[in-house]
Design brief:
Elements lengths: L1 E11 L10 E8 L23 E3 L1 H5 L6 E5 L9 H10 L3 E6 L19 E7 L13 H5 L6 E6 L2 H12 L6 E6 L10 H11 L7 E3 L3 H5 L8
Parallel strand pairs: 2-4, 4-5, 5-6, 6-7, 7-8, 8-9
Antiparallel strand pairs: 1-2, 1-3
Length: 230
């Protein structure tokens, strides 16, 4: 059984290895997380209690009308061991899957043939938590070095110190995954200040940073005050 907070359709606002941000997707938000990041925007899904939808089997989850593109998120989805079974089942039924995970839990291994079955596709979006998150020491660096070209490493950057730590990490590791810098946002109604400063900083160093993308959470731009998930 999986402890599920919500299942709903929306815009996949995060950069991902499928077709980038902006895809229509079915979110499966699992309850529970092993970290407490300072900037967490889904704190309601962190705790150890039961999620709003309760404990569901994989068959129960299939009762919801899911789109071909599915985003598994949390909380921290890999915090639940049965998440691997859910991923495998979705791959076997031809879904295009993005798993958003926090860089502190090892990623489950699947037989490569699963990704080819019925057009299934799997991409991990893995946060590398920087000092401003308060959980930087929890990062398992071996996770990031084993990611594939279809995966994404996301750096949520709150200040210049975070920016420099991210660049040092990238420079000192051999990374195949796509690299994304995303500004920490204090006010979802205001993208001036640091969000634009980070963009300008990247533009000013464009030659050096040409392989790194800038990303805003599209869903937060569109729906800054949207709190209820269906």
């Amino acid at each position: 059984m999986l402890n599920v907070e919500a299942i709903f359709n929306s815009i996949d606002g995060e950069y991902n290895g499928f077709r980038g941000a902006g895809e229509l997707t079915t979110f499966i938000r699992l309850k529970g997380c092993n970290l407490k990041c300072s900037f967490c925007d889904t704190a309601y899904s962190q705790g150890a209690g039961e999620g709003k939808l309760g404990y569901l089997s994989i068959l129960d989850i299939y009762e919801y009308r899911m789109l071909k593109k599915v985003t598994i998120t949390g909380g921290e989805p890999l915090f639940q061991e049965k998440c691997a079974d859910l991923i495998e089942s979705l791959l076997q039924t031809g879904h295009q899957i993005t798993v958003e995970t926090n860089g502190s839990i090892l990623i489950p291994k699947f037989h490569p043939s699963l990704r080819a079955q019925a057009g299934g596709f799997l991409s991990y979006v893995v946060d590398y938590k920087l000092p401003s998150s308060g959980v930087h020491k929890e990062m398992k660096e071996e996770i990031f070095t084993k990611l594939r070209g279809v995966d994404v490493i996301k750096f949520v950057i709150a200040d210049l110190h975070d920016f420099n730590v991210a660049l040092n990490f990238i420079a000192s590791h051999s990374l195949l995954a796509k690299l994304v810098f995303s500004p920490a946002i204090e006010d979802q109604n205001d993208y001036t200040g640091w969000p634009s400063e980070l963009a300008i900083l990247m533009i000013d160093r464009a030659e050096e940073l040409r392989d790194i993308s800038y990303s805003l959470q599209i869903h937060k731009v569109l729906f800054p005050n949207f709190k209820i998930e269906i």
